[in-house]
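To the wet lab folks,

You asked to see what we're planning to order before we commit. Fair enough. Below is the target structure as tokens, and below that is the sequence we designed to fit it. If anything looks off to you, flag it before the synthesis order goes out.
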């Protein structure tokens, strides 16, 4: 039986914290930045397709997420994560790369692009929080009382995470059994539960995206926006607003797809991203 290689096969020490990383394939680099409540597992079906298309894929778990370190005292906000991403580009010795960010990973990618656009060939954004779009109502309730939720019974927390993860997909059968358990593992338990609220939920704050209306029109970079029409957290109207504000940006909408596009329609998403990057390579 052929074994699938692990997505994360290395680590980097960035600003004194351990970041779990992975590099796959050879060719023009592509960096993947996941969102919340997720980790690198969300890329598992896309990475082989990108590698087969001739790209070298770099991915990692955000600080405080997945297999990366969960420091007791650390800033894991969107702004701080953008600094970590820039340091990772240097660690990987990538003077220029394609960048694909999902959810807050897209907000992180944009914050990096605002100050370092020459480091990027192109930028792909999928179902990202923007302007005043976040947190969504269910996440806002958790954010506003995150300390209480961090200490609630483990079973109650797990049930809440199952509910939220199933809300993230249109095809509910995609978020069950082993896949569901792999998403839940870093979010639950004596370390995962308090870490989730400290490192993720506590930083669900639109202050990191309210300046997009001012910043985006100045962005000089090829941008592609991908969005699930059935996204329960980030309404598709925000995809259109991003397109209006980003010069030359294209939007691709996916029917019967929710917030976790890579779960609902992995192959169409990969095909669109590959076509976008290959077109840039030819231009």
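Sequence we intend to order:
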């Amino acid at each position: 039986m052929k074994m699938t290689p692990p997505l994360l096969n290395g680590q980097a020490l960035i600003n004194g914290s351990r970041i779990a990383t992975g590099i796959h394939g050879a060719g023009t680099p592509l960096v993947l930045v996941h969102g919340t409540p997720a980790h690198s597992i969300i890329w598992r079906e896309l990475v082989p397709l990108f590698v087969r298309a001739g790209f070298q894929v770099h991915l990692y778990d955000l600080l405080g997420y997945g297999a990366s370190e969960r420091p007791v005292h650390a800033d894991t906000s969107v702004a701080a994560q953008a600094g970590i991403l820039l340091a990772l580009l240097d660690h990987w010795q990538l003077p220029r790369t394609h960048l694909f960010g999902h959810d807050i990973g897209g907000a992180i990618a944009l914050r990096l692009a605002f100050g370092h656009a020459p480091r990027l060939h192109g930028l792909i954004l999928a179902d990202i929080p923007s302007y005043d779009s976040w947190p969504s109502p269910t996440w806002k309730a958790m954010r506003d009382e995150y300390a209480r939720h961090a200490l609630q019974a483990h079973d109650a927390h797990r049930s809440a995470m199952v509910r939220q993860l199933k809300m993230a997909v249109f095809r509910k059968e995609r978020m069950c059994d082993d896949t569901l358990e792999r998403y839940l593992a870093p979010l639950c338990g004596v370390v995962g539960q308090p870490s989730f609220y400290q490192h993720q939920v506590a930083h669900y704050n639109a202050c990191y995206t309210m300046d997009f209306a001012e910043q985006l029109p100045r962005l000089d970079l090829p941008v592609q926006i991908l969005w699930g029409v059935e996204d329960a957290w980030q309404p598709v109207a925000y995809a259109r607003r991003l397109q209006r504000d980003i010069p030359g940006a294209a939007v691709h909408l996916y029917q019967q797809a929710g917030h976790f596009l890579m779960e609902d329609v992995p192959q169409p998403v990969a095909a669109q991203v590959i076509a976008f990057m290959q077109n840039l390579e030819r231009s």
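Structural context that might help your review: The chain is about 40% helix and 15% strand. Residues 100 and 124 are 5 Å apart (CA to CA).

Thanks,
Computational group
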